[in-house]
Amino acid sequence: MKVFKFGGASVKDAAGVQNVASILQRFKNEPLVIVVSAMGKTTNALEEVVAAHAKQNGQAQALYDALKERHYALMRELFDETDEVFAAVNDVFVEGEWVLDDKPADNYDYMYDQIVCVGELVSTKIVAAYLNKIGLKTHWLDARDVIATDNTWREGWVIWDKTKANAQKVVTPLLEQGGFVLTQGFIGSTSENFTTTLGREGSDYTAAIFSFCLDAESMSIWKDVPGVLNADPRIFDNTIKLDRLSYKEAIEMTYYGAQVIHPKTIKPLQNKNIPLYVKSFLNPDAPGTEISSDTDDTYPPIVVVEKNQALLHISTLDYSFVAEHHMARLFAKAADLRIFVNMMQNGAISFTICVTNVPDRVERFIKDISDEFKVKVEEGLELITIRHYTQETIDNLKKGKIVLFEERIRNTMHMVVKNVPPIERKAVEVAGSKA
Ligand code: ADP
Ligand code: ASP
Ligand code: MG
Q1: What is the model's pTM?
Q2: Fold exhibited by the domain 2-216
Q3: Where in the chain is the domain with CATH 3.30.2130.10?
């Protein structure tokens, strides 16, 4: 069997759902597990609902109603008004409303998961119903019956042995009956049957979990780009599509922020040597990118820009050296607050870390260590990672930037920069590549 994943962009409107169906038509009669995300920007809209509900500012219901209406409008383009999908989707929306009818839970992240899951549940109800309507037999599966997690809300940790047993028990018999199995990305369930989410953009990861647990032959993620490019096409012109990438290369890119694939996706696939294809849903015949084990491929420079970074310059209050026991404390605190340390550098009485800037967590970090350390913060920075760098690429990327911190390790270069003046669109100029 194979696993396919369609992201929010692929099902953002009725034409998108029809396009997904036309791709799946080509795989009729093949055993496929299909993972689908929430439609378009639904998850962002649901995050606004959660925030409004938490603040009790009276806007949560109106925001939720607008989202419902967008889904119903899309459904009216695909189905007759009498189709039973309307009732099925309404039932899911009502479950979200129950949460909104209650007063906000003390635990924001718990409440978030119970509301935000609605996006994936409704999108999969709609896509499965549409596939069945056009004669592609499809079983709708609740991913929460398979993906078991702990109760780390918004970042659920997968309980692998349980998830694997569930997948084999639930999914295999459905595939044996014939037809596709279609399920939600991004969501899982705790042992008490509360919903968890796996982290933003987590549907790629869901597909990898199913692939691992069911020993898939391959996994394909269908995107609005021709494949993995050597830089983000929203920031750079003249990007190059990479025909092949090793797992290692893909893990390095995604860890440092290449948004095309969720960073947790690669490991389960690598562990079972399952190839990952990144393909275009706009051009399904094109080969896309294949990610699989190492070969002796050579790569052009690959650039990843991670925005929203902060440098924390941490120094001891009493001029004592920053020793290992200090670092142990700093890292324990960072882990506790789920602060991601992307780079670090130590000096005699200071220690500098580059972190993804989540303001409330960073403020808490600074407060919690203030008995021993003082911290100077620089915000609004970017972390640029270049794999297989050339001097020309580095010089090009440094134009218009102030470099605050840089490091080269073998074929990887990292630099933390700030813009002067802010944001300018540039080409990645790569020696010897097409311009
Ligand atoms: P999905 O709809 O599956 O969630 P995403 O929007 O998360 O898809 O990912 C696809 C987007 O990732 C592309 O539209 C592109 O703008 C962006 N992207 C960032 N870096 C890259 C890269 N190196 N290669 C291809 N796409 C990239
Ligand atoms: N819908 C979720 C999000 O937007 C998960 C995903 O699309 O991968 O983050
Ligand atoms: Mg995504």
Answers
A1: 0.93
A2: Carbamate kinase (3.40.1160)
A3: 302-434
